């Protein structure tokens, strides 16, 4: 299923200005995000090693599998530079996987929660019935975010990923459309 790749903003509460916009990620975002994606600590929980060269990151951003994954840069309202990104990949009809990354200097301000909320609302508005995230068991920040957004731990896949830090287990967190709807109603 081909998805439109438009800019996204938070649906719903219009009483306060939006702090973030999600716009389609582009290769030039590599310049803004390279320091983050080259940092071994920031990339610790990814299934790939940190990037060594900005050119490799540009190519990675350009050659994403656009048939099943969409990616948006997280930008502060009124700005152009990316401070992170969110991504969604349709795994089967009605089911999408999400991923996200936020630059260290943008952390601690609620941006990840706001950006992932925008993404979840968009995916459910498009008719997805289930969204899931795959995270490392030691990635406490990601686990806290998913839990705060209403995701449920569905299972542990043992020795799932061969990564730059070794073979790692994976936790699968899921959220159903009706769960999201009941959380956001009222």
TrEMBL record:
Gene3D superfamilies named among the record's database cross-references: 3.40.630.30
Keyword Transferase assigned: yes
Keywords on record: Transferase
Domain N-acetyltransferase stretches: 20-178
SUPFAM superfamilies (UniProt xref): Acyl-CoA N-acyltransferases (Nat)
A Pfam family per the record: Acetyltransf_3
Keyword Signal: no
GO CC, alphabetical: cytoplasm
Superkingdom of source: Bacteria
PROSITE patterns: GNAT
InterPro entries referenced in this protein's UniProt entry, alphabetically: Acyl_CoA_acyltransferase, GNAT_dom, Ribosomal_N-acetyltransferase
GO molecular function, one term: protein N-terminal-serine acetyltransferase activity
PANTHER family named in the record: FAMILY ACETYLTRANSFERASE, PUTATIVE (AFU_ORTHOLOGUE AFUA_7G00850)-RELATED, RIBOSOMAL-PROTEIN-SERINE ACETYLTRANSFERASE
Protein name: GNAT family N-acetyltransferase
Record organism: Ameyamaea chiangmaiensis
């Amino acid at each position: 299923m081909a998805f439109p790749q438009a800019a996204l903003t938070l649906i719903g509460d219009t009483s306060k200005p939006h702090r973030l916009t999600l716009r389609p990620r582009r290769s030039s975002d590599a310049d803004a995000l390279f320091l983050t994606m080259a940092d071994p600590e920031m990339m610790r929980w990814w299934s790939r090693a940190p990037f060594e060269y900005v050119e490799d990151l540009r190519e990675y951003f350009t050659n994403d599998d656009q048939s099943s994954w969409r990616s948006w840069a997280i930008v502060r309202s009124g700005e152009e530079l990316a401070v992170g990104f969110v991504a969604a990949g349709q795994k089967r009809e009605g089911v999408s996987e999400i991923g996200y990354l936020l630059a260290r200097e943008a952390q601690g301000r609620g941006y990840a929660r706001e950006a992932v909320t925008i993404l979840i609302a968009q995916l459910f508005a498009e008719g997805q019935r289930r969204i899931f995230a795959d995270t490392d068991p030691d990635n406490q920040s990601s686990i806290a975010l998913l839990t705060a957004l209403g995701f449920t731990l569905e299972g542990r896949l043992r020795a799932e990923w061969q990564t730059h830090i070794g073979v790692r287990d994976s936790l699968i967190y899921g959220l159903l459309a009706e769960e999201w709807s009941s959380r956001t109603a009222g």
